[in-house]
Hints:
Structural class: mainly alpha
Number of strands: 0
Amino acid sequence: MTSAPHLLPEDRADYERVLDEALRTATDRPEPSAAAARLGAGQLRAMALDAAALINTAAATEYAHLVRVREEHRRPSGPVTGPSAGPGFPGPQGEVTPGAGLGVVVTVLTPVLAGTAAVVLLLLGYVLRMLDPPPDIAGQLLSAGWFFAAVTAAGLLAAGAGLLVTALRNRPAEVHGTGAAEPDEVARAREAWHHALRERGVLPFLYEALAASDAHPVGTQEPTTPRPPAPGLAAPHAD
């Protein structure tokens, strides 16, 4: 099936989980063959990982449905709003909307200007205070310097709070596997893919690998990597 979608990196972990579950079924049969001693679980797993794209073709229909449904749910349903799409911020396509806005300019420039003024005024005030006798302006410079220092601290606090709010508002949605709930339609599509992948792809591949190893006892040529059966063929029963 040449039209089968390529296994995406984000689904690699799901593939490995299905493979590990199938390995327990294939290698823990009631009457294990001599091949089980020759091809261990690690060897079978490595073979199945190398043939992941080929094995996934057996569940191509279900996987294509999962990818399509997941992309539909990830696609934004409306225009992007919030700080990341506001004036002066890059939009969804990377463009920057004109007009930064007075609030943004004040938030950015206030700590810088107030901090610079505080350093200059405090430095001059303490230098003049060292004179004997100290001029009256020294006290005024120190008072102004400490005032601008307080403005600087308030500006930094406001900027930090703004960054925190922006980060929380623009936090990307957690993907499957991190504990976050995903839409029911995506969950059902994922479960259908898992079942098809296990029953029509991974298990038949593992059973064929064990059968091929049975036909090549130790000391003969290594069996070649088996191909998964065509979609629709069921795995042999583990009697």
